[in-house]
Amino acid sequence: MPLKRMFFVVLALLVTSKAIAQTDVINVGSKTFTESYVLAEIMAQLLEINDYKVTRRFGFAGTLISFRALRNGEIDVYPEYTGTINEVILESQRTLNLAELSAALAPIELDLLSPLGFNNTYALTVKKSLAERLQLEKISDLTQYPILRFGLSHEFRDRADGWSGLKDIYALPQSSSGIEHGLAYQALLMDEIDVTDAYSTDAELLHYDLVILQDDLGYFPSYLALPLARQDMNANAKEILTLLTDRIDANIMQSLNAQVIIDGKTFSEVASEFLFEQNLSRTVHSDSRDLWPSLVRNTLTHLKLTGIAVLAACIIGLTLALAVYRSKPLSRILLYTAGLLQTIPSIALLALMIPLAGVGQLPAIIALFLYSLLPITRNAITALTTIDPLIQQVAQALGLSTRQQLRYVYLPLSLPHLLSGIRIAAVVSIGTATLAAFIGAGGLGEPIVTGLALNNTGLILQGALPAALLALLTELTFEGIERGLVPPHLISSQSTS
Amino acid sequence: MDGIIDFQSVSKRYNNTAVFGSLSLVLKPGVITGVVGESGSGKSTLLQLINGLVRPDFGLIKVFGQPIPSENLPIFRRRIGYAVQGTGLFPHLRAERNIGLMGKVEGWNPEKTESRIEQLMLLMGLNLRLRTRYPHQLSGGQQQRVGICRAMLLKPEILLLDEPFSGADPPTRVAIHERFLDLMVAEPATVVLVTHDMQEALRLSSELVIIREGKVLQMGSAKEVVNNPNDEYVEKLLGNTTHAP
Lengths: 497, 245
Prior knowledge:
The complex is a heterodimer of chains A (497) and B (245). With 497 residues, chain A is mainly α. Helices cover 61% and strands 9% of the residues of chain A. Chain A is elongated. Chain B is α/β, with parallel strands linked by helices and 245 residues long. Chain B has helices spanning 43-50, 73-77, 95-105, 110-123, 140-152, 170-186, 198-204, 222-227, 232-239; strands at 5-14, 17-27, 32-36, 58-63, 66-67, 80-84, 158-162, 190-195, 207-212, 215-221. The interface between A and B is medium-sized, with 21 and 27 residues.
């Protein structure tokens, strides 16, 4: 009972602390790619320089989750693109201009702040040397050179607003071959292809000395970057963010991305230097990149997420198992339900939690809890229902009450199974919890998500290694617990799942 | 005080097969009654009717002069010891904890439980160093002695034994019989001993009940039954034993 109470107290604390934070602090969000992180960090630092308290809730997986977090008030602002708002959020059939977008967002209480100054859209790119030799500046210039070889990403070739429309509108005579986007720049450099598609702010453009051909017929939809905010966000804070208006053109954004991806600087360093150069800040702070504090913080968060979830699953799962194990139909219903929950892919379950519980730690804990229920209840029910009938008969005949039978006979005999169920739940939770970073729960998934966005193996390992170590330690801990609690002759035969 | 256990027209069916049609019998207090029959004769069910593990479909069973209570069965059952074939020892408990469990449940202090365990182990001829062994570390005969010690812990007025000696080899069995009889002298109880082995029944019991397919063929003192078998089947069962030592 005290454990159960503790669990609810912790939950209540989580919920209320979030509610308090929302009123005092500006919550800045980002998606999981470099540019989004950099822009969000610039916004966060600019607010901090102007004496606002900021909570960084970076790394939401995709537009829908970020948008949901914004609507729910989990975040106040995050960087978004007009084209994305148009297509993904508003699902508009035609391209809306800025004023129309603002009007469409007003009823759902969202504000578009002014554009930051660049358009991150699809573009065609060629080597600078080739552009100079052939005097290529615009896409329409390409029509004069049917011999040029187009190597395009698969997505670009497939999209309705990609290659086929482009070829029609510009009447391009060339045909194209498909190539993996990651290899396309390399192929350009080796002169195996001449033209490829890119995002206009890709860091690689700068790195490989490529130029973008101007979309002179205005074929590509525009993806102007701008802060998307809640209407109820502090008005002065919004005012401050408009200081960024038109400060970041495509070249600057390319360079900011390159500083992260190619030079290996942190978001924080890049943002700080940018604000200094733009005279928006008086100092540059260098980032010490302290590994240990963030490692400890992430590990503790990770333990908190999995610990609360597995503990709750133990209490509720075991209670349920004890309540139903005597009835076959009820046991089946319970196991099928728990099994069904298990089949939902983890990232989908996390996303499903958002409308119910918002983003952050609470939905992550609920999702992990639901995942932990199956191994715990299944093992408990299996153990309780497979106790030797003779033992059951004797326990009753000796004069043990139902409760005493449970305490002195059923539970101790089920212990190896129960423990292995809890162990499986704990180990699986530690793994699954790394995905919780996608909905802003933090933990060891945070460096993994950021590392994936940056293609930075070191950063990925900062999350993956401790998570693996934690899983291993959990295994060992449970082995120790089992050895302490279960007579040796009962371990070997039963401790499998 | 005649009739510590009293069956009145008891019938019991499992899956439409009658175990007992209409069974009436009265068992004498303070003696060992051997219930002899082949497997499937319903003799185990007879024991489980006495301690309320199985309820009759019809009829009345009185134990200690009262109908079996429908509430507080655990309290009722603690007055009745129970030991079964295959021992039913709890595999997760050492011998001493198996024997002493009900003392703990009854709230005895550890010293009392401890000394009672030792007393019983000595009476049943168990070496005290076996106390810390788990059941699987004991021989068949040792397991059976532990089972009987466990059944006797609370000094029950009735002791129900369901083939409790069948797991031991014959010489050991005889030794356990001797110990058991000693124990019954030291701590007399009304014993119902179910067995398929007439020799065993004759060695231990003063009263006999012979049952076949849920029907009592003959009951009475052992001497009476041996001298005047009233049925061919009873004679056949006795056949093997008339020349026994």
